[in-house]
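step: validate -> pass
step: tokenize input -> pass
step: predict -> running
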Amino acid sequence: MSLRVVHNGSHYTSAIADRVDEIAAALDVFWLLQAAVTIFVMQAGFALIETGSVRMQGARDIMMKNLLDASIGLLLWWCVGAPISGAHGNGFIGADFTTDIESDGKKMAQWLVGYMYAASSVTIVSGAVAERAKHSGYIMLVSVNAGLLYPVASHWLWAPNGWLSIHNPDAIFGGAMDFAGSGVVHLHGGVLALVACLLVGPRMGRFDERTREPVEMRSQSSSFIMLGTFFLWVGWLGFNMGSTPGLSTRAAAATAAKVGMRTMLAGSAGCVAVTGIELCRSRSLSLPNTCFGILSGLVAITAPCAVVSGWAAVLIGAVGGSLYYLISDLVLRRLKADDVVDAFAIHGVNGAWGLLAVGLFADGSSSPTAIGVLYGGDGQLLLAALLAIAAITLWAGIGGGLCLVLARRLGVLRVSEDESRFGLDVLAAARPARGRPARARWAARRRADHVSSSAAVDLGGTDSSVHASQEYRVRQGVIAEWSASRSSSATRAARAAEV
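step: predict -> pass
step: emit ->
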């Protein structure tokens, strides 16, 4: 819009005001778009952490699941997820199927950010059941979660008419405050991950058959886990700050800056807490545990990041890291749940802690309606948080459990015994493909790696070179054993047919 200086100053003032409004609206849209891009980086972080946490023979399978849940989740969010989570409908479920969002740039940007939150919640489950869940069963769970379970939970706490939304004047106990998704995203995904672990069962060999004590299964790459943690930490800044609906006012900008500061403090406190506990208990440090302590602090601060002070953010993050360290061991030893990436301890437990932290530490500085009991609140916010925790836990647990039970009845939940024993990637490489068999191509490639590794060992190579050579021999033996078992089965079947 061009501006003209005229003798009547009112025309000039009006043109300036219109231009300022346009810039402010464009700034709000840009803020949401860059937040969406930053949050999407978390998908790479999840993929790296999960790939680093599994054994080498399950790496390709878990990466495929990450691609599937991001793509399938997007299509389902577009079809049914976003309308169900929308403002129309009743307090339980939305019905926003008639709104035309493509006529408004800000609505499209909000839709994109909403999908990023949904994708983060959906992908939490993939790492928990790594190395033993079938693709078909996993796709069933992703479809139900992205198309129904997550959108309904999102509607409850974030829609203006949700029965637990703090924006709804008729909400029970005044509604629960979940600024960026400790409950909606992380508690929901963590509970679903635990249910999936229990119903799918542990990896073969995870527990001693006689004593039922856990058997260590070494992850393939701590470096991947560390790198994935940094990707998630960067994405978390977009995740939390992006919950600020715009950046066109001074108050909104101040809130975004406050949220970013609290997010960094809590993540660092979670890291230090786990480090301190490990040094006191064993005088040694575990890189994966330290990384998961950071993530636990980030999950815990996601709900209260806009309404707590700096010291409270540090305390919330430290408690989050400590809870992770305690609960991850209990889940493994008491529940016998083989949660490969500790999804429940990180996301489920600390998602609940984040909601409770709002009811305890909210200081009322950013929202007059959000005052915790430690700052003189009447306890309504804490009661609403407890109700939200119970509701999300039951909804995700029962809904996800029914879907998984159906998948088990259909025989599409867990991989076969051979696949569990030898590894999903190894058997996939052993199966024939068009043209030259995939097994031969894989064996030739590994043979070349073996020659390089052997040369490196002869020349005084590193431990990684020795490991590569050993890995080659192990995989060759696995494929030979599997091929022999398949051949003997085929021979027996042929003889039986002749008789």
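step: describe -> The mean pLDDT is 86.
step: cleanup -> pass
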